[in-house]
Amino acid sequence: MIFGSVGDFAQTGADMRKGFWQRSVLGACVPLLAATAGQGQERAAGAAERHVRQERLWGTLQKLGEFGKNPEGGVSRVGFTEADLAGRAYVIGLMREAGLEVQVDAAGNIFGRRGGSENIPILLFGSHIDSVPHGGNFDGDVGSLGAIEVIRALNEQKVKTRHPLKVVIWTNEEGGRFYAGLFGSSAAAGIMPADVGERRDDAGEKLSDWLTRMGGDASRIKEAKITPGSVTGYVELHIEQGAVLEEANIPIGVVQGIVGIRDQTCTAVGFANHAGTTPMNRRKDALATASRAVLAVREEVRAEPGRQVGTVGWMKIEPGATNVIPGRVTFPVELRDLDAGKIERVAARILQRFEAIGKEENVQITCTSPELEAPALTAPAFRYAIHASASETGLKTLELPSGAGQDAQNVARFAPVGMIFVPSRGGISHSPLEYTSPEQVANGAEVLYRTILRLDAQLDAGGAAH
Ligand SMILES: [Zn+2]
């Protein structure tokens, strides 16, 4: 392992321009795409040649599931634990077997590099292998092992890509320990707090100590930042974690983007008084008011078409006694959608409703200023490449948003991204019941294989399709 920043990510604009001119002259790589596309056209739908091997990929998924395995099924391979370390060692071994040159950066992100024929920015693809406590065997694992299977398939097909390729396993995506989700990709995006290494868990263990064990270095976390321009694009294969694909009976989801999240905390302040002696018309009941507010959130979110969602996930009732009228209730309002404008529009309507309800109930509802996480949209050229790759494999596609957070949302800060979803049985995830069939997993990996080749042929070629 080599610690510190990875050389390719420091590529300069001058290198890229040089690459551009080389690309304009070299037509040698274009036939690669033509050959791939031609196969799809000549063969009947569903009968297209497969490059990834389903049993081999499934075998590695099963084996990875041994690390942190739970008796009730599934895994607890939480980031920064012994199980995570063991899983990482297994995956690094697979990368080396596939001929990848493995490096670990300061944030513990694992990169496996395969050389390209041109001096152009890399194509990056991968996922994460950490899980939530009592999670499943597919969230993150499918994309990580699918990416390594793509490398094995490229080796077998003796394909030389123009772009250098890198498989990435991001550190601690779920954030099960130290409240540090999307850890590795946050460092790559340069948005990690500098003192993150100081964080301790309840047992007093320090994040920085665990990071060292993983081959990282908290004191040099800034060096894990990836320079914009050094990555041509990022593609992640992932399970949907919802039921849209299964219900539509569609094997491949083309992700439109990762939804934005708007989160604020609201408080209804009434007056706590005796439950027996205060007549109904003299009450300032904060809980009755907050309850109406919760229903108003649902009504306003549903008031226009689309996939936007809104949730009130908890309530704190004070003083919280059977014989006292609640005087104060605190609750969050969380809204998510791909369209930031829509989120704001719905939020404004909700606040209007809160004001009206407050007046009627004689209780004041106030909300903190919102915390915003902007939506991260996937690149149109990447969505197109995924559609086309699925189509030539004989697989139907459906466009959908990712309602869950993903490392790709951080990567979108420094490179264009694309995401491929495969179905989750029953829409269940973060559970031992999480399941995607061997065939569905292999479908996703095959589409990833073809998408990488398609992007390799198209991107950085005469300024096309970025
Ligand atoms: Zn995941």
Structural features, described:
This protein is an alpha+beta fold. It is built from 13 helices and 15 strands. It has helices at residues 13-25, 30-42, 54-64, 82-97, 141-156, 183-189, 207-213, 244-248, 286-302, 340-361, 380-393, 407-411, 438-458; strands at residues 101-104, 110-114, 122-128, 165-170, 231-239, 252-258, 260-269, 309-311, 316-318, 328-337, 364-367, 371-373, 376-377, 397-402, 417-422. The strands form 2 sheets. Strands 1, 2, 3, 4, 5, 6, 13, 14 and 15 form a 9-stranded mixed sheet that branches. Helix 2 crosses helix 13 (438-458), helix 3 packs antiparallel against helix 5 and helix 11 packs across helix 13. The longest helix has 22 residues, at 340-361. The two termini are 32 Å apart. It binds zinc ion. Zinc ion (ZN) is lined by residues 128, 139-140, 173, 238.
What is this structure, in a nutshell?
The protein is α+β, with helices and mostly antiparallel strands and 466 residues long.
